[in-house]
Amino acid sequence: MKINVHAGHNPDEKIACGAVGLIKESTQARKVKGYVIKYLKAAGHTVYDCTCNNGTSQSDVLNKIGRKCNEHIVDIDISIHFNSGANDRNGNGKNTGTEVYVYDKSSDSYKAAENICKEIAKLGFTNRGVKTRNDLYVLNRTAPARKKALLVECCFVDDKDDANLYNAKKMAQAIVIGILNAFDSGIKKYSTRKINTFNVKGEKVGSITKGTTCNADMYRFINGYLMAHRKKNDNWVKAKYIR
Fold first, then answer.
1. Among residues of the chain, what percentage have pLDDT more than 90?
2. Are 69 and 49 within one domain?
3. CA terminus-to-terminus distance, the chain
4. Which terminus, N or C, of the chain has the lesser number of Cβ atoms within 10 Å?
């Protein structure tokens, strides 16, 4: 796949930066974005970083992100943000959670958006679900956007319970699994070298030779590694070794 990824807004402490609370949106969105790009590239995909770090205003930031996105013909466009408005800096024992926006329910990105919500919810966040918006720049102004873009609101910057639960690497892993299970499952791939196979606990159960068919039906992180499940054989292989 070819994928656009960007962190929303200018960097923190610049004009048009993101929300600031217990979490700084612009800083953490860039951390999550970095991990997302790393993992998607490890899975063999072409990823373009369309983040803007030098906007002169909010509209300039959006225009620059849009221009970068429109330079590439991609399968999906991912915008990473953090939400605000919970007004719960002391914590009430319940996090406010995560949500993902798409242009409408017919968007090609809708399934990935659903998956991302479910994967982030597995981390303990409240699943606020997939929502539609036709007024957000990244969802209606980039070339493939109305069908292929999604905007992730990872969690709330002003909720202590969200902040305590949040981890950039785990958040990125959830986003990546949501994307891969929507777009990359069932595609015929082959091992690029002799590799080990594992069970769901990450224990070695065997090996396969170079060129072995690896039709992954799902992806998961096991012991920190991005793994692909071979349904026919019911074992797991490291995703970086199949193409």
1. 95
2. yes
3. 11
4. C
